[in-house]
């Protein structure tokens, strides 16, 4: 377990054993073999926030999860199934998602619209949920609050991911320690696949739904929305954030809500200090986002693109995204071909006003472009930088103090292989 | 020669021998070996129009060619060199381009700003033109108006292109037959390379500079701007259009200007009928654009994307471009993996309002999506469609009569190989 999770939480196993959340993994039968269902059950209902794919072609699970968010439902359980994306399946698809939610609700003791269901997998094939309801009872009964069960659940979410992704952070408010943790799956392949990203984030800190949603939107903008494997988005991408402490706070059960009454960093209504929580959440989301890129299909290099001094954050993001999605840039890194011209050229077509006369570009520790001119890099330095597994790409534009970071991987033979091969 | 050129011009060789343009190919020494210079010399000065890369990072040759266009110069010769893009080279780079122009001008007898020079090749390396001036005299002296010389020039423009690209069309105005022809180079690799596209188009039809520029901009929008190999643009992309008849018309030498005075399809000032010319030019430009895609790095499939019924032409272009640049769509075609979900998903993230309930998608002869639902395709039909070398992808949105076409190729192992390998 220690090897599986990232973050700075020394007592994460102890937190898990507190029983705030129980986990389960099992097989419903959707995939040809192996576990295809992960379940998260909160001991009490949790406050819920979510951010969903911007693709206008949305899976039935996304519209269902968005409806629960709009109705500000408190959530008792989350079911994630893999093998079928339930996208492009019309009204019958939506009914399938709700049938699974109702099945879980029956076993954990809540209303159907207090269960969020997410799917990942093949697009355009009827899910026919009635075939899979039989496995739900065992899945729900076996749920437990152990590190092993969490590991099983994180693994059951995987498709072509090569490792499960879990991260946790602790943060302190007065005398009370709170936890933020999360799981994610990245680019995974079921025939046919999309670069589907799903993440579930949980905190025990007392936070209202409003704050939860506001902080989640900001953090996703700086983490999950700043990674690219191939520039494609799926109909299923979803990031969900739950606060178990938030529901307790709203219900007035202050026992768990350490911040209340201490007067330290708490707000009047008992919420924890927002920046403290946001930092911890950003840390967890960044861990998970980075691990999705590191586990990107076929990836051999991890690139951190820093854009500094653009005229706005939106301009900086466009520049970073254009570099991160350029096939010419990504193949050059795969080939360890020292090729700053391709990066400068990507910046030039980003659709953003840039003064090349003031621009600087640095790859690793080598300044390669300065004030309208390419600089000469010794061949040994170029080779050394390109051989690094993690390569910083720093673009300095000199027009402001704005700085953003963006993460991507290289484009490799294996990416083409994974996505070109017929796998049925 | 017959095998080399496309188009409907039965007497193209005869046209060439008329001597309106002379061609030459030779070696200046910029590349390690082989011809690296192509020359086009007009018997009299030609009217000139041009469309250039939208990349804000522009080669010195592009700014030089744009200056001549702005000054409405009549052009005597075009020099294209390969091996060095002369981009990111500052003021010294611009001086290098002008030095080559002056060199050609001295040998063909015109002013330096009546010569257009284009470069393609490595970015960010000083060109140091003084080293290459020696080869210009022989290049200019050997120019001749033969099909063999045209073939040599088209070949000297190539980098990793696997075949030279020439197309010609004839069109009739009254009793007079006019010609439009052109050459192009596509995605070619010099270390390091960009998906550089250069094209020179020529007509003997009498057309004013204004009309020439207007028609060129429209035609490029429908041809060269509707192809994608990898979504990258270079600092050097240029399409130049010359009318030898236009300059004669303006000079009042009506001998060559058959349309004048016949009253058939000619305008008052002796220009040929614009739609007739535009059709012929579009045919030539489309031939060349298609051949660039067919010769795309590593390509094994040619995809024609038709988008019909979008709310506007701009919306249709965005949808087509999103499909054409999706790595998931392009690798699926390479793998002959029948995967309509990836195309629907690309449409969904194009950033355009689309009603999926009204949408239809057809691959080859198979309707695969209709009114919000994927249709079942027999496996034998799916295999047959994916085995085709040229696959039509038709998206019908039902919101208008607008229709656009867009061309692309698949993403293959060889694309990654060509662009990842260190070639020096």
From TrEMBL, chains A, B:
Protein name, as recorded: Arginine biosynthesis bifunctional protein ArgJ
GO biological process: L-arginine biosynthetic process; ornithine biosynthetic process
GO molecular function: L-glutamate N-acetyltransferase activity; L-glutamate N-acetyltransferase activity, acting on acetyl-L-ornithine as donor
Reaction equation(s) it catalyzes: N(2)-acetyl-L-ornithine + L-glutamate = N-acetyl-L-glutamate + L-ornithine; L-glutamate + acetyl-CoA = N-acetyl-L-glutamate + CoA + H(+)
Similarity section: Belongs to the ArgJ family.
Subunit structure: Heterotetramer of two alpha and two beta chains.
Protein localization: Cytoplasm
Gene from which the chain derives: argJ
Gene3D superfamilies to which the protein is assigned, alphabetical: ArgJ beta chain, C-terminal domain, L-amino peptidase D-ALA esterase/amidase
Keywords: Acyltransferase, Amino-acid biosynthesis, Arginine biosynthesis, Autocatalytic cleavage, Cytoplasm, Multifunctional enzyme, Transferase
Positions with a binding annotation for substrate: 159, 185, 196, 297, 419, 424
Main location as per UniProt: cytoplasm
EC assignment: 2.3.1.35, 2.3.1.1
InterPro entries per UniProt: Arg_biosynth_ArgJ, ArgJ-like_dom_sf, ArgJ_beta_C
GO cellular component: cytoplasm
UniProt organism field: Ferroacidibacillus organovorans
Annotated site residue numbers, Cleavage: 195-196
């Amino acid at each position: 377990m220690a090897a599986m999770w990232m973050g700075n939480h020394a007592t994460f196993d102890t937190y898990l054993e507190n029983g705030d959340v129980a986990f389960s993994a099992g097989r419903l039968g959707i995939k040809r073999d192996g576990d295809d269902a992960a379940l998260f059950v909160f001991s009490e209902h949790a406050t819920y926030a979510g951010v969903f794919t911007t693709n206008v072609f949305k899976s039935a699970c996304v519209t269902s999860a968005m409806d629960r968010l709009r109705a500000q439902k408190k959530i008792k359980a989350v079911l994630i199934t893999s093998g079928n994306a339930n996208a492009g399946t019309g009204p019958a698809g939506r009914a399938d998602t709700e049938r699974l939610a109702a099945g879980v609700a029956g076993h954990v003791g809540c209303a159907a619209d207090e269960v969020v269901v997410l799917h990942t997998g093949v697009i355009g094939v009827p899910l026919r949920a009635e075939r899979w309801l039989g496995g739900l009872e065992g899945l729900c009964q076996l749920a437990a609050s152990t590190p092993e069960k969490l590991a099983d659940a994180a693994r059951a979410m995987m498709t072509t991911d090569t490792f499960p992704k879990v991260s946790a952070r602790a943060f302190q408010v007065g005398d009370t320690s709170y936890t933020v943790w999360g799981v994610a799956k990245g680019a995974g392949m079921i025939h046919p696949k999309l670069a589907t990203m799903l993440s579930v984030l949980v905190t025990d800190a007392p936070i209202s739904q409003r704050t939860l949603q506001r902080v989640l939107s900001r953090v996703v903008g700086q983490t999950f929305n700043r990674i690219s494997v191939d520039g494609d988005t799926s109909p299923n991408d979803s990031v969900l954030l739950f606060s178990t402490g938030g529901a307790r706070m709203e219900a007035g059960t202050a026992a768990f809500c350490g911040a209340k009454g201490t007067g330290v960093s708490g707000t009047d209504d008992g919420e924890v200090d927002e920046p403290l929580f946001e930092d911890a959440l950003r840390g967890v989301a960044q861990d998970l986002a980075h691990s999705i890129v590191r586990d990107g299909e076929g990836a051999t290099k991890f690139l951190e693109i820093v854009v500094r001094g653009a005229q706005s954050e939106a301009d900086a993001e466009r520049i970073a995204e254009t570099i991160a999605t350029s096939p010419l840039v990504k193949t050059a890194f795969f080939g360890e071909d020292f090729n700053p011209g391709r990066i400068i050229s990507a910046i030039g077509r980003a659709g953003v006003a840039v003064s090349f006369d003031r621009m600087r570009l640095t790859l690793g520790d080598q300044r390669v472009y300065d004030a309208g001119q390419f600089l000469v890099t010794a061949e040994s330095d170029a080779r050394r930088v390109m051989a690094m597994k993690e390569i910083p790409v720093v673009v300095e534009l000199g027009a402001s103090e704005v700085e953003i970071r963006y993460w991507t991987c290289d484009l490799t033979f294996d990416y083409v292989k994974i996505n070109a091969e017929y796998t049925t």
